Amino acid sequence: MAHATGVGARVRRKEDERLLRGRGRFVGDIALVGMKELAFVRSPVAHARIRGFDIPEEHRGAVFTWEDMQAAGIKAIRAVSGLPGFKVSEQPALADGKVRFVGEPVAVCIAATRAEAEDIAAQVFVDFEELPVNTDMLEAVKPGAPLVHEHWADNVFLETNVGGNIREVAATAPVKVSRTIRTARQCMVPLEGKGVVAHWERQAEQLVLTTATQMPHIVRAGLSECLGIDQGAIRVIAPDVGGGFGWKGLLQPEEVVAGWLAMKLDHPVRWTEDRREHLVAAANCREHHYEITAYADERGKLLGIEADAWVDAGAYSVYPFSACLEAAQVGSILPGPYDFQHYRCRTFSVCTNKPPIVPFRGVARTGVCFAMEQMIDAVAEAVGREPWEVRVENLVPPEKMPFDNVTKKHFDSGDYPESVRRAVAALELEGWRARQTRGEPDGRLVGVGVATYCEQSAHGTAVYHGWGIPMVPGHEQAQARITPDGGLELRVGVQSHGQSMETTFAQVANEVLGIELGKIKLVHGDTGLTPYSTGTWGSRSMVMAGGAVSTACKTLAERVLKIGAHLLQARPEDARLEEGCVRVGQASIPIKDIAHTWYRAPQLLPLDVDRGGLEATSGYKPKSDHGTFSYATHAVAVAVDPELGTVQILDYVVVEDAGTMVNPMVVDGQIYGGVAQGIGTALYEQMPYDAEGQPLASTFMDYLIPGFTEVPHVRILHMLTPSPYTEFGVKGIGEGGAIAPPAALCNAINDALRPLKAVVTDSPMTPERIVAAIHAAEASR
Prior knowledge:
Elements: H1 16-19, E1 36-42, E2 48-54, E3 63-65, H2 66-71, E4 77-78, E5 90-91, E6 98-99, E7 105-111, H3 114-123, E8 125-130, H4 137-140, E9 156-163, H5 167-172, E10 175-182, E11 186-187, E12 195-201, E13 206-211, H6 216-227, E14 234-237, H7 253-265, E15 269-272, H8 275-282, E16 284-285, E17 288-296, E18 302-314, H9 324-333, E19 342-351, H10 365-383, H11 387-394, E20 403-404, E21 410-411, H12 416-427, H13 429-438, E22 445-457, H14 461-464, E23 476-482, E24 488-492, H15 501-513, E25 520-524, H16 541-567, E26 576-578, E27 581-584, E28 587-590, H17 591-600, E29 615-620, E30 628-640, E31 647-657, H18 664-683, E32 715-719, H19 741-753, H20 767-780
Parallel strand pairs: 1-15, 13-14, 18-19, 24-25, 31-32
Antiparallel strand pairs: 1-7, 2-6, 2-8, 3-7, 4-5, 9-19, 10-17, 11-16, 12-13, 12-15, 17-18, 20-21, 22-30, 23-24, 23-29, 26-27, 27-28, 30-31
Helix pairs in contact: 10-11, 10-19, 11-12, 15-16, 18-19
């Protein structure tokens, strides 16, 4: 039986006591003695050679370029991949003779305040010789396109081919539908931008980097390579981190610069990203283009899928995931939970004169869901059936679980068809169909859309070792230590940026040991205090680090039981651990008394006591480390104004299966936040570029994100299919909510536009695109 505050309980977040009272400690809150501020000179052009610098004489000691860093032996960032054909790009922390995107850092300026540093930066003149620019990934791969990296033969980081010959199916399938689909480049827009404070700690002889990161240990490894010093001479600390979504899951050039300057100048330095830097120079993602065809029988049963997919990866390969992450995943995850036999997908990771793309919540899955779910609706229309019915017949049925799909993705558990049926029932589809028949008094068109997806999470060694990137996840470790007064300290290498780890990991420990949540302390995000970890990404933390917390606490439980039984003059096999006490029959002794005995009265311990004491480190990998698969179906009803192209969301339902939920309230919060981001992807967010590579959305006046009035009330229904491979049956959940909204909303909009024969295939589905689709349909008639 679960404890009232253990696994499965809706416990209020421990973090909120400080965060909601403004007592969090973020990079922007840190003030060290003698600290100076950094500002960067950034390229105003997308592609150019640097002829030289003109630095005012009075500021020469406050301005540094790559020439200065190179003279000190600093190396460029290298993010590599072992996949055949991958081209390596070296990204200097400051531009090395050439700039490759607008916003690339060219020089760094240092002063007592950020304003003074920016004033110095404004006085630095850079002489640029402009070069031809690549802004469209489809044009960049053509022969004769300007090369972003001159020593390459083309502008493709990597080409992949997945699947086999599909020609026979293509020639004989009764139903064939094709679409050209495109997703816009976006920004992450976390509440807190990136930031870093660096200083040299003389006593420890360490460079200490306090940085807003999801991956402290990986940042340390990357810094070690760039700065040329041992990892033991670097300590990376992540304080409170105000959202990340992938943007804070990489080594930043600014972190390398800050670390180098802290050592060179021997005083603390800080850089905090402003919002224009974020939008223009940094966190770009999710720009996909698909040419995709689905083949099916007369009822809509899928026979095969073939696709060519391009991903605009920007100018450099980011550390550690590399430029191949997004596109290479497209080929392997496009089929998702659909059960069909024939498949071919070719992908291109394209190098352009834009900022490097970085992993964003739901990496690649949002794009492939957008493409695949549009194809399911297109097949349904071709065979004259309800789209949800076609989904149910094509999704893997529960009796096939565990299931290996056409790309050998190993699905652990679930009932995908049932999630569709429940979502459609909750949305009350028949009522919406009747309303469509009646029509709206104001002339708007009503539509209903459904989208199903899977979220592969907690990727393990089996998934990542073939990529050859600088990190492969293995055993995640956790340390658990009972304190002398019976409290519990947990140490994990992952870092929270909104995942509620201080609460949920405490719930896991409470489930095993019964120690009160208020007496459990989590230490995380500090390479000097925690076990090694590849960090927080891919919805892995609860499965991996939570599993390690559980196994470490189980080790302590065995030791506690043995000591407790001895103190109760009983055999260990007769003792049980309940509610923070060791019990034998009606007698009991609390853990705090056992802790006191270990630390303060060791003469009372059994002679054969475990010398590891009340502290344990444990590593954890699931029984199968191919990842867990949570999933959901999103169903939405919309009203579209055919004159204005505006979209109103009338109802939104999510049927989610996260396996065993450690804290259902936290799961709901992750889904709500993800859906809000997904609505932004679907209807508002895009980072367009002109022909010269200039970003056209450098402020929130141009880059639109959804607010309170744009996000509807979301109804969440839960299914519960535990994973057979993990502690407690948990699955990752952090990214899923953001995956399906663009597909569900696109299908709903197209359902509304069906009487007009108009189809929208690109995101975001802006009023301009919707009106253009209607006009195109009118013209074709």
